[in-house]
Amino acid sequence: MIVYTGQSLYQAADCPDFTGDIICMDEQLPLTGVKIVDLSTYAAVPAAARILADWGANVIKVESFKGDSWRRYGEIAQVPCTEDENPCWDVNNSNKRSISLNLRTEKGMEILHRLLADADVFMTNYRMTALRAMSLTWKVLHQTYPRLIWGHLSGYGNKGPEAERPGFDIAAFWARSGLMQDYGQPGMAPLTPFHAVGDMTTGSIMAGGLCAALYKQARTGKGDKVEISLLGTASWLTGFPAVAAQKAYGNVYPRKRNEQPSPVCIPYECADGEWLELCIMDYERYYPALCHILDLDTLIDDERFNTFAAVQCHAGEFIDLVQRAFLKKKRADWGPVLTAADIVYDNVGHFRDITENQQAWANGNLYERHFNNGRSAVLPNTPITFEEARRPASPAPLLGEHSREILREYGYTDEEIEEYIARGIVRDHAET
After folding, report:
1. Which of the listed residues 46, 82, 152, 164 has the most CB atoms within 10 Å of its CB?
2. Interatomic CA distance for residues 432 and 67, integer angstroms
3. Please, what is the average pLDDT of the chain?
């Protein structure tokens, strides 16, 4: 079924009978009618834009002639990154359209401003040096387009001595925050995190900030400046350990496994070599049940362990006892008894396990993407769902795939479009 709202035009992924140029969208999506210009690269801002696109926004991704560098990320991740199969590109760029512009030309900038003139949001992670050179700063754009929301994501924030410093998530998010060092074990090399976890987290928060600005825009008719950084997000997410590590409180990280502040909030190995994570927050309430499950009833009244204050002083001893108990059974055997006792736990899994997780499938967290080469991959959906509608994930756009379509929507004639392509102002995918 094709639904046309009269504002923004899209072709939904689940419209197999669709043959025209008009795009369909569900009018129940909360951001239907919102227009967004996405001038960004890599992962964080594209992730934010993907979320907003899934919520119904008309997201136009503006790319250089070389395209967003993330198109080639598969080379690092060791997955395909061709036009026929590019799963990493799909994750952050589904449900968008791509226009490829040469912003080094006056006409290219003119086209960008045509897009901005009726846009609700402009979002970017270009460095401020580049934005100033192109006159795309908040101050300039706010004067020209007072209702436009300006969203900017940086590595380290737009103030201070490192404002212009480039930053990827493994540097500004993982390394600087302490996550790499202090979530490991003393004497071990810092963790080597997988790319883009910090990007995706920061992008998700950015999407929320932009929605708050859209609410203000709807009330007042005025735009706003929305800024976020990888370092700022990491500072927020590491708030609890960062507080605990202050000199006033004396907590030292990284900690050895047998020195953890709570011995019932750590992983334990089972008989088959698999691990499970206990997560008991109310220690005194669940301590007797845990002892009973582990056949450690003699410890229920042991004054070394039967209060949280006491066990913190004897954590190493308790961890050793609990670990020996868990090694008596396979992980699959522990699950039912822990669940029966209402004890929170989970299996310590692997990345590969997520795509086969039936709970994730049941809640629409995953979908299967079929590529043009006949292969397929399981990809994640953005995590928010709504009662009335969920926009299906369409294939992420090829470079310049929608250049002609978008230019026609903004009043350019076919003759003008052909001229711009010939002059190297616009790149159309069909011409490459």
Report:
1. 46
2. 12
3. 92
Q: Give the residue from 347, 270, 266, 349 showing the smallest Cα distance to 312.
A: 266
Catalytic residue set: 199
DSSP assigned state of 96: -
Determine whether 146 is exposed, middle or buried from the number of CB atoms within 10 Å of its CB (0-12, 13-18, 19+). Answer: exposed
Take residue 182 and report the two structure tokens written for it.
């202090």
Task: Give the phi and the psi of residue 142 in degrees, each rounded to 5.
Answer: -65, -35
Classify residue 258: in a domain, yes or no: no
> What's the mean pLDDT in 389-401?
91
Total domains present in the chain = 2
Q: What is the DSSP letter of 229?
A: E
Q: Which of 345, 329, 333, 328 is nearest to 277 (CA)?
A: 345
pLDDT tens by residue, 114-126: 999 999 999 999 9
Question: DSSP character for 175?
Answer: I
Q: How many helices (H) and strands (E) does the chain have?
A: 19, 12
Residues making up the chain, counted from first to last: 432
The burial class, CB within 10 Å (0-12 / 13-18 / 19+), for 275 is middle
- Concatenate the DSSP letters of all residues of 138-174 into one string: HHHHHHH-TT-EEEEEESS-SSSTTTT----IIIIII
For residue 137, the enclosing domain spans 35-237+361-431
Angstrom CA distances, 282 to 288, 307, 308, 338, 342, stand at 12, 10, 9, 15, 12
Which contacts (CB < 8 Å, 24+ apart) does range 17-22 have?
21/405
231 contacts 172 by C-beta, under 8 angstroms: yes
Please check whether residue 2 lies inside any domain of the structure.
no
Whole-model pTM above 0.85? Answer: yes
- Average pLDDT of the segment spanning 399-414: 98
Give the C-alpha separation, 228 to 341, whole Å: 42
